[in-house]
Amino acid sequence: MVRPGDSGSIPGAAIASSRLDDLLIEAVFSVGAHLGAVYVLDPGDELLSMEASVGVPATTARVWARLRTSDSAPVALAVRERRLVWLGDRVALARAFPAAALALPYHFGLAAVPLCADGTAWGSLILGWPTGGESELPLRLRDVLDDVGARMGHLLQQAHARGQPIVPHPLPRVLNPVRAHPPGPYAGLTAISCLSSLPEGYCHLDAHGQVTLVTAAAAELLACRPSEMIGRRFCKALPWLDDPVHEEGYRSAILSHRPTAFTARRPDGRLLSFLCYPSLPGVTLRVTPADEPGPAVEDTGGRTGAAGLHDLLHLATALARATTAQDVVDLVADRVLPACEAQAMAILTWDSGRMRVVAALGYDAEALESFNGRPIGAEHEHHDGDEPAPAFYGSADELHAAHPGVEPTGGMNAWTTLPLVALGRSIGTCLLAWDRPHEFGAEERAMLSALGGLVTQAFERAWLYDHKHQLAQSLQSSLLPKNLPEFPGLEVAARYVPLTPGMDIGGDFYDLIRLDDSTAAAVIGDVQGHDMTAAALMGQARTAIRAHAAAGASPGEVLARTNRLLTAQTPERFTSCLYVAFDLRRRVALLASAGHLPPVLGLPGGPAEIIDPSSGLLLGIDPDAEYVTTTVNVPPGATLALYTDGLVEVPGGDLNDGIAALAARFAPTPCHSLDELADELIAASGEEDRRTDDSALLLLRSSAPPDALRSGV
After folding, report:
1. pLDDT digits (tens, 9 = 90+) for 542-591
2. Tens digit of pLDDT for each residue in 579-638?
3. What is the pLDDT of residue 556?
4. Which of 42, 45, 137, 47 is nearest to 87 (CA)?
5. What is the 3-state secondary structure (H, E, C) of 32-91?
6. Mean pLDDT of the region 53-65
7. Fewer CB within 10 Å: N-end or C-end of the chain?
8. What is the DSSP letter of 619?
9. How far apart are CA 513 and CA 671, in angstroms?
């Protein structure tokens, strides 16, 4: 996941990026929005990166800088479905996207617009309004958004066609429309003069939280000279205001476009009142003395620092949904790096005592190559009984002092390593890097340590999940036949599709057994459950059926003997099974069923028939159950379909109707290969997310004339 360089290095891309900025500012003002952002879709159609924003706090922009197209977010949905997504208020947001609503608990309406050209999506535009709770977006605004979405999409398409696509910066740019369109050379002086004539104090902060204007009255109340505030972040110029509560008041004013208020004490104990009035961009603060003076408040240093509680909450919510190790890797790249304002990251895992790069961002290929295969050094070693802890190196000198043999890589000059642990042992590290020396204060160390704990917990859960399912999938793969035996005069095709690819295991199985030169035994079954026990039971059933079939038992006897074994070994799990002995010389099929779905027989030149043999109990219920053998004629060219319920079951539908529908569309012809037919049947079962269970399918067709079988061909 190494990203390309700065798009500004390509003149054509820089021009296109500037034009995109103009369209974004135009869109915000033309529809009366108070915030907006534009995302660009990567060439792989999997990642949306924020190119620029207006009216969005820089800290919030960083948190939402990268989104997967598969994410549950309005921006991603607009791209996936190529449609405008409108959410009138935070209630609508919570209903449709609960995780996003938890991370953005503010009052505003939201519209996400796909940026399309010729039916292809190239990105997305998102705009926010002061909430009015409208269930529908006014037609006039919808027309404006459709127009600007098409113009942006055309711009991105043309840039791509010229070979100079817009490539977003590692951190999104926050635009200042006032600077882009200055109202006049004396506007700033006039504003200061007007505000300074008022008794209250006033400050203006831009989207980065930096002070752009401060009146003399405000400077006096804040006990700080204007020269010490202008150009600096408000909370850095006044450390006693560096508090999550105060930051949230500022952030809420911008995102909800509603005035907010909070009080704070100066170090000398004087209480001040702050009113936050949102503007575009940023916020204007009105500072006045509060009613009640109080004692000085001791600075305990218990603040959250760089990302803040808001960002940690957002990340924790996202990590809670991570299922696989790749999910965690993507979240670290998309959310952690922007929140920490770092320039590079790498996820490293250990393999036979050496490093392996799982994912990286911001490092070039040469730097990554230096990581791959490097022996695990002392800086990453973890001994039993030791609690692994993050490490911080603010400069190359600090790194050398701690680990003399380690050389900086990729032009970085500050680092932190967040250990990844599973089952009490080190399995890797998350490396964050800055391109300049970086001072890690106590607050930022605490925040990064907390962040490392969240990543470690998610990675451990995902690592165990991946290993469990790799083992289970390996077991299931070994139980299903890799290659079906070939029989003269018999065509065979088989398919198996799990309910959730790569997730569920166990359940459905099939097999084809050679009994003699002219007889094949086909088996299909469905074990209750989707876990390791189901996979083990599946293996027992398949092995038992093979053993009894090879001993010459009839179909009914094969099921009866297998049933006694499964009842004794796994009495609380049941298995449906259909066993078919296909006699190619006599052109008959001998069937026995243990509660399995009836096979379908496709006849040449005629409608398919549903064969309903006398069915016995599921395997594993009654050790004394008996199973009847039914004989069915199979004319030359006829095709027999054996299947499991995932192929025919529809949510809320009747199973018999599903079987009838399968028979209605089952029309094999001599020129229709069984592989093509199998693919068509599996594809039809997956339409509109209809599949509710695993699907197994086994097709058999007798094609050779009887004399070929007698001659042993």
Report:
1. 889 999 999 989 999 999 999 999 888 766 778 999 999 999 888 999 99
2. 999 998 889 999 999 999 999 999 887 889 999 888 899 999 999 999 999 999 998 889
3. 94
4. 137
5. CCCEEEEEEECCCCCEEEEEEEECCCHHHHHHCCEEECCCCCHHHHHHHHCCCEEECCHH
6. 83
7. C
8. B
9. 26
Tally of residues, the chain: 713
Q: Cis peptide before 281, with omega less than 30 degrees from 0?
A: yes
Give the β-pairing of 47-54 and 173-175.
parallel
Tokens of 490: 């018999």
Which segments within 535-653 are labelled E, that is strand? Answer: 575-583, 588-594, 600-602, 609-610, 615-616, 630-633, 639-643
Angular region, 82: left φ>0, alpha ψ -120 to 50, beta rest: left
Q: What is the mean pLDDT of the chain?
A: 79
**549: enclosing H helix or E strand:** helix 532-550
User: DSSP characters for 394-433?
Assistant: SSHHHHHHH-TT----TT--EEEEEEEEETTEEEEEEEEE
What is the rounded CA–CA span in Å between residue 504 and residue 476?
A: 10
pLDDT at 38: 95
Picking from 169, 98, 85, the residue whose alpha carbon sits closest to that of residue 127 is 85
Instruction: Encode 344-355: b = buried (16+ Cβ within 10 Å), e = exposed.
Output: bbbbbbbeeeeb
Identify which of 158, 151, 157 has the alpha carbon closest to the alpha carbon of residue 24. 151
How far is the C-alpha of 639 from the C-alpha of 673, rounded, in Å? 11
Average pLDDT (59-72) is 84
The rounded distance, in Å, linking the Cα atoms of 225 and 231 is 13
Residue 417 structure tokens: 């390593």
DSSP codes, 278-294: E-SSSEEEEEEE-S---
- Round to whole Å and give the CA distance between 334 and 158: 27
For residues 280 and 28, is the Cβ–Cβ distance under 8 A? yes
In angstroms, the CA 305 to CA 338 distance is 14
Look up tokens 């909070």; give the residue: 262
**What is the average per-residue pLDDT within 364-377?**
81
Closest CA to 548 of 525, 564, 534: 564
Pair of tokens at residue 113: 């617009």
Tokens representing residue 307 in the block: 């990302």
- Token reading at 167: 């490539």
Query: Would you state the structure tokens that stand for residue 655, as one six-digit string?
Result: 């199973």
To which H or E segment does residue 357 belong? strand 354-361
The residues facing 421 across adjacent strands are 426
184, exposed or middle or buried, with CB in 10 Å at 0-12, 13-18, 19+?
A: exposed
Tokens of 458: 């998610």
Q: How far apart are CA 284 and CA 274, in angstroms?
A: 10
Give the pLDDT confidence of 485-527 residue by residue, as tens digits: 888 888 999 998 876 544 455 578 899 999 988 899 999 998 8
**pLDDT at residue 252, rounded to an integer:** 78
**Is the distance from CB of 555 to CB of 581 less than 8 angstroms?**
yes
Distant-in-sequence, close-in-space partners of 512: CB < 8 Å, separation ≥ 6: 481, 484, 485, 492, 494, 520, 521, 522, 523, 698
- Rounded to whole angstroms, the Cα distance separating 671 from 674 reads 9
- Other Cβ atoms less than 10 A from the Cβ of 405: the count is 8
The answer to whether the beta carbons of residues 590 and 555 sit under 8 Å apart is yes
Candidates 248, 342, 249, 311; CA nearest to 447 is 311
Rounded distance between C-alpha atoms, residue 435 and residue 676, angstroms: 55
The answer to whether the beta carbons of residues 47 and 70 sit under 8 Å apart is no
